[in-house]
Specification:
- The protein has five helices and no strands.
- It has 183 residues and is an all-alpha fold.
- Among the domains are: 47 residues; 60 residues, no CATH class.
- The model has no long low-confidence stretch (mean pLDDT 82).
Length: 183
């Protein structure tokens, strides 16, 4: 008999959508666990949007004073607009601004979420309003930038540094395992 070359056996391939084998595989199980963990982290990360931990509690505990102030300010603003403007609109805007300022400052200085731009803009706009009230509106409005831009830039830089320090402290505090109670 003449020697014949043995034909290599072809392996059958599973379809990509086929069910996994009954034989367990440690590598396959670990890969599935990593995929599931990555999916959980992705869902958690997209839900938190740059925040670390829980939102800081307000100074009045569970009573939402700042949110109520914003609601009252919006109501006053609406009433003022319906009555043709006047002092009620200004009061509404001031009440809204105070509520927003409290919430943003609390979140910013505890490292929860950065509000550097908004917190730096509030004093800059107040300075601009004061300059216009004292001196009057300049013919060249760009001249107001001479007063406002350095204040905004300096405050933004300082607030950003303060937030970075607060965020690092918050992350370190959250990463530290809590001691078991009763020891």
């Amino acid at each position: 008999m003449a020697s014949q070359k043995a034909k290599p056996r072809s392996r059958k391939r599973r379809k990509t959508g086929a069910a996994s084998r009954a034989v367990s595989s440690r590598r396959r199980d670990e890969r599935e666990q990593r995929r599931a963990q990555a999916a959980r982290e992705l869902r958690r990360g997209s839900r938190q949007a740059g925040r670390e931990g829980e939102r800081p509690e307000g100074p009045f505990g569970p009573l939402p004073v700042s949110e109520l102030a914003m609601l009252i300010g919006v109501i006053a603003l609406g009433i003022g607009f319906l009555n043709g403007g006047g002092p009620v609109v200004i009061v509404g805007l001031v009440i809204i601004a105070l509520g927003v300022l409290e919430v943003t400052a609390r979140e910013h200085f505890t490292g929860f979420r950065s509000h550097s731009t908004l917190l730096a803009a509030i004093p800059a706009v107040a300075l601009e309003a004061a300059v216009v009230a004292i001196v009057g509106a300049p013919s060249q409005r760009a001249l107001l930038i001479v007063f406002v831009a350095p204040v905004f830039g300096g405050l933004f830089w300082l607030l950003r540094r303060r937030f970075s320090a607060a965020r690092q402290a918050r992350v370190a505090r959250l990463a530290r395992p809590s001691a078991p109670s009763g020891l």
